[in-house]
Design brief:
Blueprint: H1 3-27, H2 35-62, H3 68-93, H4 99-125, H5 129-132, H6 136-158, H7 161-189
Helix pairs in contact: 1-2, 1-3, 2-6, 3-4, 3-6, 4-7, 6-7
Length: about 190
């Protein structure tokens, strides 16, 4: 097992800790003095895990360490991390004025991830590798989404409406880019359905 694959596995292991820190930090009355620390720890852990997502792929390609296991695990780790944290954040924002908006954006992200996963599996079966490769818009989408999610994790502690609005906007841009890249995947893959 090489370093990129180990980073991917660490990212998956980090997810339950991120969720635990968010949940306890937001909803527990057991540790009130430490709630802010736990939420910031969740934000830092999520941001670090997101950075490893960019590092492990680049490292694997530049050092010729691309493996079948790493290629299989990387997209699973990303989707597991993003979808799990978003579902947890739906709970956090459900009682706020942004509850409906955030739920709709989260649903769009999860629906997009399910569609792309199915589409990649289909195009791989049809041997259309260019359709299943990661696009530049997909990478840009990931950058905006990961940044937005990190900001949304810590926003309740920052307790500033402008910061929350910027966080929602950054995440929203990521969602729009995600839907745009999904459309591009569908367009390129269209011939496999004919």
């Amino acid at each position: 097992m090489n370093i990129p694959t180990i980073l991917t596995i660490i990212r998956m292991i980090a997810v339950p800790f991120i969720i635990f820190f968010i949940y306890i930090g937001q909803f527990s009355e057991i540790v009130p003095p430490y709630n802010t620390i736990l939420i910031f720890a969740a934000g830092i852990l999520f941001a670090t895990a997101a950075i490893t997502d960019f590092i492990d792929g680049k490292l694997a390609r530049t050092t010729s360490q691309v493996t079948k296991l790493g290629t299989f695990l990387d997209p699973i780790a990303d989707k597991f991390m993003v979808c799990s944290v978003l579902v947890t954040l739906v709970l956090v924002y459900s009682e706020t004025s942004y509850g409906l908006l955030f739920t709709v954006l989260t649903t769009a992200v999860i629906a997009r991830e399910i569609l792309i996963t199915g589409l990649r599996e289909w195009t791989a079966r049809m041997r259309e590798e260019e359709a299943s490769a990661v696009s530049q818009s997909g990478k840009l989408k990931a950058g905006f989404q990961m940044t937005g999610i990190t900001m949304l994790i810590v926003a309740p502690c920052v307790n500033n409406i402008t910061f929350l609005q910027i966080s929602m906007a950054v995440f929203g841009i990521g969602v729009i880019l995600g839907l745009t890249s999904a459309y591009s995947y569908l367009k390129v893959s269209k011939k496999t359905f004919m």
